[in-house]
Amino acid sequence: MKIRKKKYLIGVIGASEVDEKTDKLAEDLGQKIAEKGYILLCGGMSGVMEFASKGAKSVGGLTIGILPGKDKNEANPYIDIPIVTAMSHARNAIIVRTADILIAIGGKYGTLSEIALAKVIDKPVIGLGSWDIPGVIKVKTVKEAMDEVEKRVR
Fold first, then answer.
1. Domain range summary for the chain, segments of one domain joined by +
2. pLDDT digit string (tens) for the chain, length 154 residues
3. Does an H or E element contain 41, and which?
4. Which residues contact 126 (CB under 8 A, 6 or more apart)?
5. Which end of the chain is more exposed for a tag (fewer CB within 10 A), N or C?
6. Neighbours of 149 (CB within 10 A)
7. Would you state the pLDDT for residue 5?
8. CA atoms within 13 A on the CB side of 50
9. 3-state helix, strand, coil in the chain (%, to 5)
10. Considering the domain 9-153 in this protein, what is its CATH number?
């Protein structure tokens, strides 16, 4: 029997509407996540979720989207595995519980809710230009974010 190495799920959370700087950060982060062999997990929609997924797919990574609606076709075009929940924002709990680590990029109240859910269950959250909250690991660059991920998954 062959034993498979654990595949880590890195959750990327953030706003559905982003500026050019944020979309570049998200795309770079998604690429680095995939290059390290991790699976990218996100909300599957637009903004940070789409650009992170695009970055992961640009280097052959695997992407999972936990969708808020009832139709898997609502997922952004870079999602490999769309998971339909029909739960709206309540799907944030699924994202948080499923990810091994979360990285927040920017974001508004939806992102804040995911951070709060993660902190309640003591899940690591890395913040890249996101909410400045005690317990969130604050970083300034994608490299710093990935360094923090590496400390926690090995």
1. 9-153
2. 665 567 999 999 999 999 999 999 999 999 999 999 999 999 999 999 999 999 999 999 999 999 999 999 999 999 999 999 999 999 999 999 999 999 999 999 999 999 999 999 999 999 999 999 999 999 999 999 999 999 998 7
3. strand 39-42
4. 101, 102, 103, 104, 136, 137, 139, 145, 148, 149
5. N
6. 24
7. 65
8. 14
9. 40, 20, 40
10. 3.40.50.450
Output the pTM of the full model.
0.95
Give the DSSP per-residue string, 90-154.
GGHHHHHHH-SEEEEES--HHHHHHHHHHHHTT--EEEESS---TTSEEESSHHHHHHHHHHHH-
| Residues contacting residue 137 through CB under 8 Å, at least 6 positions apart | 124, 125, 126, 127, 148
> Distance (Å, rounded) from C-alpha 50 to C-alpha 28?
12
CA 141 to each of CA 32, 77, 99, 129, 147: distance values in angstroms, whole numbers, following the listed order:
12, 26, 21, 9, 10
2, 30 Cβ separation under 8 angstroms = no
| Cα distance between residue 66 and residue 82, in whole Å | 6
Total H helices, total E strands in the chain: 5, 7
Q: How far apart are CA 44 and CA 9, in angstroms?
A: 14
Residue 79 identity (one-letter amino acid): I
